[in-house]
Design a protein that fits this description.
Length: 647
């Protein structure tokens, strides 16, 4: 905030304000038809807005695979941003083209809500449609019965909406309280419904592959665009939860616990028979080709890198959630459960995590605690507790966080070699498979556990394994250029803050969240393999590697060498920040939840095939003029100024 003006400078500012006002006034008088609104603006006001400064510099002119991946990501991103609808007419037409249905009842009001809250993209909600798709194969009354029956089920809390209000319920807890608050902001737009909220960290619904395929086939047959669809929900439907009534008994969710068991033993039934999880003939090398670059092993398909049907065989015994989850209560039935995240084999309905709605200082970004890129350290930073799965003296090596802390530990890595790419001159790269990373990690990594947690009988077996480090809050973390985000028990709540920050987020995960389709790997963040076998390849690319810095090696003096790509890292960090300010705001969470509950409201409506918005969108032409869309995201990279002769 601007403080009061210093007393002695007041006259100066008064004169300045008068001058600026009269210039504006003169402009207004004489130039109104020749100028646009942008002229009537005080200089440098954008200093006080949240926009991201341009990044000045040039991409390295070389053939590194990461350069290709960034260019490809930008190409896809441009197609995405240029392809967005910028009017209600176009939005409804696009909805019908994409899903073969009318938008749900109340879509017009949702659109106005989203536009007033400055949604940048009103098309990108396919996660919602995708999550709900199989339920088109289940009769609406049956879904309502299930949701009603689940209201007080194990690990579930219910939210009931009646007459545009949330019904008071004796159940509380931070998740359900947060959810109620969020829904309260939009409840006036929603029909009566029961929501079954998962209050466990882990996702719950895992339908076998063949059954899901059958549901999806049925869904495709139910698509239609009736021209006389009613833009309203059906009032007074039965089978909503009623205290004391007996519908609960008709629905048995058949929960069973797989806590502590190998997740893939169950998950593979939900995979395509041709996928690596169910096809023993595929080797790890075959699988790697599905999502890693042939040179360097960088993630080329982030969705596949977190798809358990693809990476499950390799990761099944190397990730806490898959190896020894502390709790995991699932069902094989298709039932409507709302969860904050899921893995690729789940049928849970995703909503924006409650964590993001909390004003928790551990997860909320504040730009006052951030630094400019040039003032940040060339460091990769991670802090966390030993969460992920139940740990015993002889199993913790199978946990993902423990593996990460190991692979970044310079003492442990002193005698190990890893594979990286090394520059051969003229901008070409080749694999250098015997890099000793000890010194590099000593110089650049600041990684460690802050405490041990979740061990049986206690965590004393870690006493000689780790050195616990001091926790760092965001203001400390943002001093590092590179911030790693890896899973805990579940998805990681820090990711939004990392995306908003001026540091570069590097992410490895198996969890899916509401925002996945809007975050482009290699444009908004750097994807990392859950095995971390690309970690040193990534970090030597960004930080560079000087031949002198490598350990003495009698056979190679020049190699390995890589120029640094600090500029590339800064560009991705700036692009992520700018985009997060448009697409990961609190408003965006509300906008997502609102549309999700409209879609859910339709799918549980007995009349669902004949309701929806069937107009052409022209009613909102005037509205669209009043609330123009924000301009396309501009290119943040500016070339450096030309060199002068003397230089
Ligand atoms: C694996 O290979 C064997 C022998 O070639 C073949 O009989 C079998 O059908 C293959 N399995 C799958 C799942 O493709
Ligand atoms: C990426 O992987 C996903 C999941 O395995 C797959 O559906 C998709 O087609 C792949 N994308 C590309 C471009 O190969
Ligand atoms: C932790 O467990 C070990 C092995 O069972 C035991 O010897 C030790 O006393 C325990 N330590 C604490 C602090 O309870
Ligand atoms: C790194 O490994 C060494 C040797 O195992 C261990 O003593 C040290 O505590 C580890 N460092 C951290 C930060 O965990």
């Amino acid at each position: 905030m601007l403080g009061p003006f210093p007393r002695n400078r007041r006259p100066f500012y008064l004169v300045l304000v008068c001058a600026v006002s009269s210039i504006c006034f003169i402009n207004l008088l004489f130039l109104t038809y020749a100028i646009d609104n942008s002229v009537i603006r005080l200089p440098n006001l954008n200093l006080f807005t949240a926009t991201t400064n341009p990044v000045i510099g040039e991409y390295a002119n070389d053939e590194h695979p990461i350069g290709h991946l960034m260019r490809e990501a930008n190409r896809q991103w441009l197609a995405y941003d240029n392809g967005r609808s910028t009017s209600f007419r176009r939005t409804v037409a696009k909805y019908r083209e994409t899903y073969g249905r009318h938008p749900p009842p109340g879509f017009k009001e949702w659109y106005m809500f989203a536009r007033k809250k400055k949604a940048h993209n009103v098309d990108d909600f396919q996660q919602i449609t995708g999550d709900l798709r199989p339920f088109w194969a289940v009769p609406p009354a049956e879904i309502r019965q299930m949701a009603a029956g689940l209201q007080f089920s194990d690990g579930i809390a219910g939210v009931q909406i009646r007459n545009k209000k949330i019904v008071n319920s004796p159940v509380d807890g931070w998740r359900i309280d947060t959810m109620r608050k969020s829904i309260n902001r939009i409840v006036q737009y929603l029909p009566d419904m029961d929501i079954a909220l998962n209050i466990m960290d882990q996702p719950r619904v895992m339908v076998p592959f063949e059954a899901t395929q059958e549901y999806l086939r049925t869904e495709a047959l139910t698509r239609s665009l009736p021209s006389d669809a009613q833009d309203g929900f059906t009032p007074g439907m039965d089978y909503l939860y009623k205290k004391g009534s007996s519908i609960e008994e008709h629905v048995n969710p058949s929960w069973f616990s797989i806590a502590g068991k190998l997740y893939m033993d169950f998950a593979k039934e939900s995979c395509d028979p041709h996928s690596p999880a169910r096809n023993d003939n595929l080797t790890i090398e075959d699988t790697d080709k599905l999502y890693k670059s042939p040179s360097g092993g960088f993630v080329t398909n982030f969705t596949a890198s977190s798809d358990l049907c693809t990476v499950g065989p390799v990761l099944g015994e190397n990730h806490g959630f898959l190896f020894s989850a502390s709790s995991n209560l699932i069902t094989r039935k298709l039932i409507p459960v709302f969860s904050e995240c899921k893995v690729s084999v789940n049928n849970d309905i995703i909503f924006p995590a409650n964590m993001y709605f909390l004003d928790d200082k551990r997860y909320v970004y504040n730009s006052r605690h951030d630094y400019e890129w040039k003032d940040k350290a060339d460091t990769l930073l991670w802090r966390g507790v030993t969460s992920g799965g139940v740990q015993l003296a002889d199993n913790w090596q199978h946990m993902h966080r423990q593996r990460f802390v190991h692979v970044t530990n310079n003492t442990e890595m002193r005698s190990e070699t890893v594979s990286i790419l090394s520059e051969t001159g003229s901008g070409q790269y080749r694999t250098y498979s015997s890099f000793y990373p000890g010194k590099f990690s000593l110089d650049h990594f600041d990684v460690g556990f802050i405490e041990a947690w979740g061990c049986i009988p206690n965590c004393s077996f870690y006493d000689d394994v780790w050195t616990y480090k001091k926790p760092k809050d965001f203001s400390e973390q943002f001093k590092a250029k590179y911030l790693v985000d890896i899973d805990g028990h579940s998805f990681s709540g820090r990711w939004r803050a990392f995306q908003l920050s001026k540091s570069l987020g590097i992410k490895a995960t198996i969890f899916r969240e509401w925002h996945d389709s809007r975050l482009f790997p290699w444009r908004h963040f750097v994807p990392m393999d859950n095995r971390y076998d690309d970690l040193y390849g990534l970090m030597t690319y960004f930080l560079g590697l000087d031949p002198q810095a490598s350990p003495v090696d009698a056979f190679s003096v020049i190699e390995p060498y890589i120029q640094n790509h600090d500029f590339e890292a800064e560009v991705i960090a700036a692009q992520s920040r700018e985009w997060a300010q448009h697409a990961l705001r609190n408003e965006d969470l509300d906008i997502y939840l609102y549309l999700l509950l409209l879609e859910y409201g339709r799918i549980i409506d007995d009349n669902r095939d004949n309701i929806g918005y069937s107009g052409d969108g022209s009613e909102l032409d005037h509205f669209d003029d009043q609330y123009p869309f924000s301009p396309a995201i501009r290119d943040i990279v500016n070339p450096p100024p030309p060199l002068t002769d003397e230089q």
